[in-house]
Amino acid sequence: MVFIHDTRLPHVLEPGCYHDPGWYERELAAVFRPGWHCVATLDELPREGDFVTRELFGAPLLLRRAGGQVRAFRNVCAHRFSALCLAPSGRAASLRCPYHGWTYADDGALTCVPDPASFASPPGKSALIGRVKLTAHPVACAGQLVFVSLAEQPAPLDQWLGARTHELVTRLFSIDYQRVLARTIEHPCNWKIPVENVLETYHVDELHRGWLARHPRLVPVFDEQIEHELGDGFSEYRDRMGADFPPYRALVRALVGPVPCRYRHHHAFPNLIIGETPVLSFLQVVTPTGPASSRSLVRLYLHRGAPARAWTAPLRRLVGAAASWFLNGVLREDAAIYEAVQTGVRGSDRGGVLGAREERVWAFQRWLADSVTAP
Predict the structure, then answer these.
(1) C-alpha dihedral (307, 309, 314, 317), degrees to nearest 10
(2) Taking every annotated instance into account, which residue ranges of this chain make up the domain Rieske (predicted)?
(3) Which of 118, 184, 290, 302 lies at a C-alpha separation of 20 to 30 Å from 176?
């Protein structure tokens, strides 16, 4: 194993950082509201008029495909504050408020007001049509991932993500991949608890009871030659997963061709998590919803094959189903401990301890503390 450190490390964040409302507000101001956040994928919006609704740091969002692009609006009518859409997804030929019928163009500009004379100023002239607009938010895509920012003028998406992360999301979630799993999971805990959980394998022996975890030598997929990288705004875990297991190598060759067997787990600070194998790509975005609550957007994609092989279609379906089943099990076992950790940080009177195997947790905590406390 190749770690950066060979001794225990300080637990940078105090217990209060996992439940204190004041610290939570500073996190939102320093690292969340200025940035970009993946809230959907293009395959959720395949046709003109398709929409999804989301919530981002208390802001209700409406994302809709129109004119060949995805736009994001505050999901609030400019008249008297009704939500334009309550459904989590659907298709709308136009943006029309269900309360009083105010209607908006694809770009959010007001186009129709019932009884327009009552809104005229001066009498006989409408000052609303074309001038009133829905609140719009910046949208950018990388691969099939749709990012939204609540900032008025955010940095370019590729700059915010950084070169390494932008390359990964553009490649691993391109049209060469097909979605096989989409989940949204509510967590009864601070957002950092799910993030930190996936940054270390120290918990695996205790928390995960699946057959593969209990009998790793029977199916030698996981490689002991691993390495960590603690980068600028990210950390990574890499190994040669499956390289020494002939059945896995044969599966990779059948589905995507003669490519190296490897695994990469990438965490782009603060909350974007990516997993890569030759066959599958994984996305988890953990979004805070309160000081002690959070939500995960989870997506799993399967490589379509290069070149496409019709005879592998049944095998591909089997792999997609098996990977989804396995991932759901891991997510369920991980989530089972989150409430206990949240209860613990509320009652703790001391800081924590991190071992060398948890150095990615330490790197993340150090980055967050520096970002929140910076002038």
Answers:
(1) 10
(2) 36-135
(3) 184
Average pLDDT over residues 9-17: 94
Q: What is 299-313 written as a DSSP string?
A: EEEEE--SS--GGGH
Phi, psi of 143 (to 5 degrees): 60, -135
At 24, the pLDDT band (50, 70, 90 cuts) reads: very high
- Token pair belonging to 217: 């030598």
Identity of residue 318: L
Integer Cα distance of 156 and 35 in angstroms: 9
β-sheet bridge partners, residue 74: 61
CA 114 to chain centre: 40
Q: Which residues of 90-100 are buried (b: 16+ CB within 10 A; e: fewer)?
A: eeeeebbbeee
Identify whether the C-beta of residue 357 lies closer than 8 Å to the C-beta of residue 228.
Answer: no
In angstroms, the Cα distances linking 136 to 33, 101, 131, 172, 285 are 15, 20, 14, 28, 22
DSSP 278: S
Phi/psi region, residue 108 (left: phi>0; alpha: psi -120 to 50; beta: rest), is left
Instruction: Give the domain ranges of the chain.
Output: 9-34+162-373, 36-141
Q: Within its chain, how far is the Cα of 85 from the centroid?
A: 23
CATH superfamily of 9-34+162-373: Naphthalene 1,2-dioxygenase Alpha Subunit; Chain A, domain 1 (3.90.380.10)
The residue count for the chain: 375
Q: Which CATH class is domain 36-141?
A: mainly beta
Specify the pLDDT at position 177. Answer: 94
Q: What radius of gyration do the chain's Cα atoms show?
A: 23
Banded pLDDT at 125 (limits 50, 70, 90)? low
Report residue 273 as tokens: 């998590």
The contacts of residue 375 (CB under 8 Å, 6+ apart) are none
Residues β-bridged to residue 96:
103
Q: For 120-129, 159-168, 327-336, which range has the lowest pLDDT when averaged over its residues?
A: 120-129
The answer to whether residue 225 scores a pLDDT higher than 90 is no
* Separation of alpha carbons 15 and 343, rounded Å: 11
